[in-house]
Write a structure and sequence with these properties.
Blueprint lengths: L1 H11 L18 E2 L1 H5 L9 H6 L15 E3 L9 E5 L1 H7 L9 H8 L6 E2 L4 E2 L3 E3 L2 E4 L2 E5 L5 E8 L6 E7 L14 E2 H16 L6 E14 L3 E11 L5 H9 L3 H15 L40 H23 L1 E2 L21 E2 L23 H15 L1 H5 L7 H6 L6 H34 L9 H16 L3 H10 L8 H8 L15 H23 L5 H11 L7 H13 L4 H11 L10 H8 L16
Antiparallel strand pairs: 1-9, 2-6, 3-12, 4-5, 7-8, 9-10, 10-13, 11-13, 12-13, 14-15
Helix pairs in contact: 1-20, 6-19, 6-20, 7-10, 9-10, 9-13, 10-13, 14-17, 15-18, 16-17
The structure holds adenosine monophosphate and magnesium ion (MG).
GO cellular component, one term: mitochondrion
Organism: Mollisia scopiformis
Cofactor: Mg(2+)
Length: about 625
């Protein structure tokens, strides 16, 4: 009933792509296992049958070598309760509406049903857990991997042709569980379920969520005993920088090469789709360099020739630059940006102690344990680049070898000792150049998003200083709510900002309900400061929109990019309490519906409640932090 109601909301309102779709039944959904058929399996369970024959509890945590995954099925889930689905997730996977009411769906997303595996013949597609490693808080952490995530199959949406890998988080122990229990608690599962879908609705690249299942019989020990849950989630790829890290650490250079081919051909649209060398860079670093295979293979003065792996690296760099720009423009903080949580596809991935900023505070980190503020809002662009340099190191040999990448001697034996220095300096130069590109792509995307958020049609060089920086400084000093600022700005009429008095009066809408905040500010100084900024802003609006400022058209455009609803920490906290402790169910669908349609003005529910969830963050709930124990 709840799900049906939500479906009605969505079809009455607008699904995010505005179109209806046919969709397949679960049984008809096209399924594939490209990842597992292209890459090497854990030699301990060389086939799905070998894994299937093994008692589930005997598939224990251990160090795995020579493999990128292990065949492993989810643990049996007792009495699963489907708490919620994402209709946007259903649509994007191409699953027919109504399938969520079937027993098959409920059992699939709880891990109790294998699709594609013929148990009698012991053949077909089988679930798996990925192996990866990672740099955590700047130190090498060794083997990590899907310690509680198990992928079921890939499926390609017949309309969009996008292929996704469907995965269950919280489905039991795998060889990569280390000392932990393979479970996920309801609390963090609710958070991931809502926020990954919210990011997608904000057009921020992210892994997605299809459903949330409560495991009422599963008692999970964290700081206290908590109920367990499973999020069925999906992504174009679950590969991370950490996947390359582990291969590098194990010295498995053949597999690094194999993985680059898999990614180019199966995750991206083929080698030829990858970025060509940036023409503006041509010749800039030109210098003769040896390529590292033999003295006869000296590279000409064309300089730093880019081979296909360099282009692959650049694609990964560019994607991550864009995603981190979107995080900054919408004030989303991941909280644990280790290399195992940095996606090869440039997705927001791994939802632990993340948060959207409430008040704008660049030093904020949602991670209670991050005392050095390594993963604070301000540091995200730097840290993602730090992680990308680790990837550059894993790919360094393939990048540095340039045109000789497929020379037999290099493929088989690697680089000759006497050529190593040249190779390293070439790789370093190419990675440094990719770093310049990272900055440029980041800035371009950040500018694009902020320009749109401010309701401008063009970007002027001076906007950076006059509008962006000045706004951020003002927000920081006055402790204003970041995302609400833009939505409130979208409501202003330009004709109401003509005089200083008018601007100072309008400034009041940005204050918290308790009045002016921030040390050393009083009502007059705060109104003056915001008023000054509004003057600069309205000048730019007139420049872009003409002498009457086109309030109506501009407001429509601004509201398309400035969400009214953001699932902030206090909202997720209330949601968790009400679902977990209060046994409420409908609230989850309500919040999810808002998260999936964040730009709407209202959601046809309870106006007062909607406004409360879109309103000022309760004073003592601002800038909350979480621990990593999820
Ligand atoms: P995270 O902090 O979520 O990025 O996790 C880091 C590593 O620890 C990953 O390899 C996870 O799979 C693993 N991990 C975290 N929590 C658990 C758990 N409860 N059971 C098994 N593995 C876990
Ligand atoms: Mg992780």
């Amino acid at each position: 009933m709840r799900l049906a109601q939500m479906a009605a909301h969505l079809s009455n309102g607008k699904p995010s792509n505005g179109s209806s779709y046919e969709g397949s039944t679960l049984a008809d959904l096209p399924k594939s296992w490209t990842f597992t058929s292209s890459l090497p399996a854990d030699p301990k369970f060389p086939t799905p049958a070998a894994s299937h024959k093994t008692p589930r509890q005997d598939i224990e945590p251990r160090q795995v070598k020579g493999a990128l995954y292990t065949w492993v099925r989810p643990e049996e889930a007792q009495e699963p309760e489907l708490l919620g689905i994402s209709l946007a997730g259903m649509r994007d996977l191409g699953i027919k509406e109504g399938e969520e009411k079937t027993e098959d769906f409920k059992q699939l997303v709880a891990g109790n049903k294998l699709m594609g595996w013929d148990a009698e013949k012991e053949e077909g597609g089988y679930p798996w857990a990925q192996c990866y490693g990672g740099w955590q808080f700047g130190s090498w952490a060794g083997q990590l991997g899907d310690g509680r995530a198990i992928s079921l199959f890939e499926t390609t949406n017949p309309t969009t042709k996008t292929r996704y890998e469907l995965q269950l988080k919280g489905a039991g122990i795998t060889p990569y569980s280390r000392f932990a229990d393979g479970k996920a608690v309801l609390r963090s599962s609710i958070r991931e379920f809502v926020v990954s879908e919210a990011l997608n609705a904000l057009r921020i690249p992210t892994t997605r969520a299809l459903s949330l299942t409560l495991l009422p019989r599963s008692k999970v020990r964290r700081e206290t005993i908590e109920p367990g849950a499973i999020v069925a989630r999906f992504a174009q790829s679950w590969l991370r920088i950490g996947t390359f890290d582990i291969l590098r650490a194990r010295g498995e250079r053949d597999m690094i090469r194999q993985l680059t081919t898999y990614i180019a051909e199966n995750v991206f649209d083929g080698w030829e789709s990858l970025p060509e060398r940036n023409p503006s860079e041509d010749g800039k670093d030109a210098r003769p360099l040896k390529t590292g295979v033999g003295k006869d293979e000296i590279q000409g003065p064309a300089g730093l020739e880019e081979n296909r792996v360099t282009r692959l690296y650049r694609e990964i760099v560019r994607r991550n630059a864009k995603t981190v720009a979107a995080w900054q423009a919408y004030a989303f903080t991941n909280g644990v940006l280790n290399t195992d949580n940095t996606s090869i596809f440039g997705l927001s991935i791994d939802f632990g102690p993340f948060a959207f900023l409430d008040n704008f505070d660049p030093n904020y980190t949602p991670n209670h344990d991050d005392h050095m503020l390594r993963y604070s809002y301000r540091n995200q662009p730097t840290i993602i680049w730090w992680n990308l340099v680790r990837l550059g190191e894993s790919l360094g040999e393939l990048i540095g070898v340039g045109a000789n990448i497929d020379k037999e001697e290099f493929v088989e034996k690697g680089i000759r000792q006497e050529d190593a220095d040249d190779l390293v300096s070439r790789a370093e130069a190419l990675i440094t150049r990719a770093g310049e590109e990272y900055k440029a792509v980041f800035l371009e995307e950040y500018k694009r998003l902020m320009t749109a958020r401010l309701g401008l049609k063009t970007h002027k060089e001076s906007d950076f200083e006059n509008l962006f920086s000045e706004l951020l400084d003002t927000m920081e000093e006055l402790e204003l709510d970041f995302n609400q600022f833009f939505r409130k700005l979208s409501n202003l009429k330009i004709g109401d900002l003509e005089t200083e008095e008018q601007r100072k009066s309008a400034a009041g809408v940005f204050f918290h309900h308790e009045g002016v905040t921030g040390i050393n500010n009083n009502e007059e100084s705060a109104r003056k400061r915001i008023g000054n900024w509004l003057e600069k802003w309205s000048t730019r609006v007139y420049e872009d929109w003409g002498p009457n400022g086109e309030d109506e058209a501009r407001q429509v455009e601004m509201k398309k990019v400035n969400p009214k609803f953001i699932p902030k920490s206090w909202i997720l906290d209330e949601l968790i309490k009400r679902v977990e402790k209060g046994g409420e169910r409908e609230i989850l669908d309500r919040i999810m519906h808002m998260a999936l349609n964040p730009f709407e003005e209202s959601w046809g529910w309870d106006e007062k409640e909607e406004e409360r969830f879109c309103g000022d963050v309760p004073k003592f709930d601002r800038a909350m932090q979480c621990s990593c124990s999820s």
